[in-house]
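Q: Focus on the shape:
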Amino acid sequence: MILLMSGLIVRAADGGVLRIVGNIRDAAGALVITQLENRRVVKADTVKLNDGWVDVNLKMDSPRMLYISRAQQRGTQQREAQPRGRRPATIQIVGVPGETLQIVGTLADYTILGSRFYQQYVEMADALKPLSEESAALRRQTDQMIANGGDRDEAMNKYQEGAARIRQRTEQAIIDFAKAHPDNEATVTYLEQVNPRNWERFLGALTPAVRDGRMKPYYQPTVDMVKAQMERQERAAKLQEAGREVPDFTLMDINGKPLSLSSLRGKYVVLDFWGSWCGWCIKGFPEMKKYYEKYKDKFEILGIDCNDTEEKWKKAVEDNQLPWLHVYNKKDDNDVTKIFGITGYPTKIIIDPQGRIARSIIGESPEFYVYLDELFK
């Protein structure tokens, strides 16, 4: 049957169409094919199948990530088909207009065939297959260790260490493949598995026809996004650099009165940038309250609410019974997050009694509490 299907891929798809053909045995009723652009869903097509057989022309004007999954069915039959706690199997693959994608197998175990791009896609995947299998074996080993009663933290630490080594080797394998196969268009679909600091070297190994060709609209938004993120992080590092004198600012406190940072000069002050929508911010409050009680005669916390309505801000302060000072930050010309280049939440900036930055910690981390103990012991 596969030989018969191979004849289907001889006819190239139209320029603005990806042709998908094949047989997916565990999706007898229908498939949902979701197109994503810049990680956002732009279109979802439901395709009816005949005993698992598919032959559809999918309209798309540029390469996009595709998620191919079984269509949801109503009633108990579908719920019984999906084991509780297990995500439905999904084929994740890049769709390229003008090509033909052939899929044979099941949603969990399939073979990719097709026209030129997909032949290159398989060639790239085969080169990385030993590392993919090693990664899967590491996951199984970790699961088995935990299932046999092993220490979960120890097992996860070993997994993280092993996974990090595999990621490094995978990155090098991708770069090596690009050097050895500079005209393989599918190589750029592995961009996100390469450290952004090595992107220039990775893309530079490819021919201009591949690097600047039809796949550029697929990978360039990721490059632009990460580049902008790195620039924000570099700017934040300068604005949060230890020793920098902090400019004064004034915001309205929870009672509607102006509160200036300079009014707290003479003691250590922790600026806590947070929001009621930030799960990690809320999760960290119990420990913060313990340390505030422990050292409140030596420092002050100034909670700076971000991206909330005043109503949600006040309710979060009340619900979590936060005993320190609070001010409300608006997204206007006086937005305090711009002074410090805040890029993540929570961010805690410790200011010394002279008004200079002593330390900046992004995220809910034990590092903050270790620092307070070292500072005030």
